[in-house]
Amino acid sequence: MIEPPRPLGRHPGWPASLGPLRVAAGLVAVRGPRLWDGGAWSRIRLRDRDHLERWEPTAPGTWEDRNATLAWPGQWSSLRALARRGMTLPFVITVDGQFAGQVTVGNVIRGSLCSAWVGYWVASHVVGGGVAPASVALVVDHAFMMAGLHRIEATVRPENKASLRVLEKLGFREEGLFRRYLDVAGGWRDHLCLALTTEDVPDGLVNRLLATGRATIPQ
Length: 219
Ligand SMILES: CC(C)(COP(=O)(O)OP(=O)(O)OC[C@H]1O[C@@H](n2cnc3c(N)ncnc32)[C@H](O)[C@@H]1OP(=O)(O)O)[C@@H](O)C(=O)NCCC(=O)NCCS
What we know:
Layout: E1 18-23, E2 26-31, H1 38-47, H2 49-52, H3 63-66, H4 72-84, E3 89-95, E4 98-109, E5 115-122, H5 131-145, E6 151-156, H6 161-170, E7 173-184, E8 187-197, H7 205-211
Parallel strand pairs: 5-6
Antiparallel strand pairs: 1-2, 2-3, 3-4, 4-5, 6-8, 7-8
This protein binds coenzyme A.
């Protein structure tokens, strides 16, 4: 039987702060979102519209309005509410202590599925620096080892080569193509589905990054 989500309080694996790992861009860590992240979040997202918008779900309103500092408290409070009910693990990414993106485990389903999706974005000034692989590795290991999930999937537009590369580095398995799956940048877009289950990574994704020299643990 699937247990109904608890209305308030903590659930396994939340709250959490994870890392740091050292990658080319700097020291990467993840933590829960805070109300005062709004200024940095908005500054980066307004600057990075060209980098982000074509990969993100279509939403009402203008980019400027949706990503204004004033839009953050609403986002923060709904992420916090979902996290408290055990439905989401929402993390902010920091590089050298500064806000640099987000990685979210969403649609957490327990019972006999124990499954969720992972989504992520990083600021344009750190792309290519290994930030997304390190953040996703930290969060997926946590979701498997502390939050009790069994499967994590990521859905990516076939055109999004950078994102596919992130998942390839981490060893996600391609499982198929979802036709007209998600409304992204104004249209229903095909998405590749990639996934991992706990059996695929008995030693964890962080160890996989360490073993391939893509990250180190700071002394
Ligand atoms: C996809 C994304 C998260 C990758 O994050 P990242 O921290 O740059 O990841 P990596 O450093 O591992 O780089 C991944 C690949 O991006 C490409 N890349 C490298 N430098 C780049 C640059 N300056 N500009 C664009 N892409 C670059 C490379 O192919 C790289 O693979 P490589 O390391 O084998 O060369 C980031 O580009 C992003 O936020 N994109 C916009 C939002 C998005 O697409 N989210 C995912 C939706 S499914």
